[in-house]
Amino acid sequence: MKLNILYEDGDIIVCLKPAGIASQNERGFYEDMTGMLMNYQKENGIAAPYVGVVHRLDKMVGGVMVYAKQKQAAAKLSQQIAAGKMKKKYYAVICHGESAMKIETCGIMTDYLIRDGRTNTSRVSDKNDRMSKRAELRYTILETKKIAFDNEMQDMFSLVDITLLTGRHHQIRVQFASRNMPLYGDMKYNTIKYNRYYYEKMNQKGIALFSYNISFPHPVTGKEMSFECKPSEGIFAEFEKIK
To answer: Are 101 and 179 within 8 A, CB to CB?
Structure first.
């Protein structure tokens, strides 16, 4: 698979991660972004390449990512994330179930989540549970419509613009699913009656969640950097706001 490089210098490399490719090394013989970036650097004459992973996207989620090419840059980027200086924005397509809770066109979602490492899932919990962590995001619904699948209708869908205010495991997926508005294509948290036929008809690759913008100060120069790329495949292509 050909890499889509958005920016590169001696310290960082910004690229587009496709849905279905892991952000970092995983077991087995499947391609992953770190291995691909290592090979890319070797092909460009770097004898001892370094790829520092400072943040991640779920395997079935696509979008813009930044990797470090030096250990010092990786450390500074990690510090930025801990301090909340790295900002991430997402597009998501949510399904409206019949019993969906009423949602305003924009607002902030705040929940407390617990991660279960055995099942690789997270769930909403009580604020007072000592294992829970605060999860917060800001959202704006950009467009809502019905979509025809071979003259049949699915439930209503909405295109949502999301800014993460915290970075919890499966945060966006869990927070919307807990309000009975799961993300389209999310086999793990989508409890609405689901038909794989429609998923395949939309040529949906992975979950309808895409990290379209990332901004941060350059780890060496301090210059404010911002990179953006919009999704164009699957159900995203049905929305005028994306086009």
So the answer is: yes
* CA pair distance 34, 6, nearest whole angstrom: 16
Q: Which of 121, 161, 124 is nearest to 141 (CA)?
A: 161
Q: Which of 232, 92, 233, 94 is nearest to 154 (CA)?
A: 94
pTM of the predicted structure, to 2 decimals? 0.90
Condensed to tens digits (0 to 9), the pLDDT of residues 40-73 reads: 999 999 888 999 999 999 999 999 999 999 999 9
| Residue of 120, 122, 164 whose CA lies nearest to 26 | 120
Q: Which residues pair with 153 in a beta bridge?
A: 148
3-state secondary structure the chain: CCCEEEEECCCEEEEEECCCCECCCCCCCCCEHHHHHHHHHHHCCCCCCCCEECCCCCCCCEEEEEEECCHHHHHHHHHHHHCCCCEEEEEEEEECCCCCCCCCCEEEEEEEEEEECCCCEEEEECCCCCCCEEEEEEEEEEEEECCEECCEECCCEEEEEEEECCCCCCHHHHHHHCCCCCECCCCCCCCCCCCHHHHHHCCCCCCCEEEEEEEEECCCCCCEEEEECCCCCHHHHHCCCCC
Parallel/antiparallel/unpaired status of strands 121-125 and 148-149: unpaired
Rounded-to-integer distance, Cα 211 and Cα 221, Å: 24
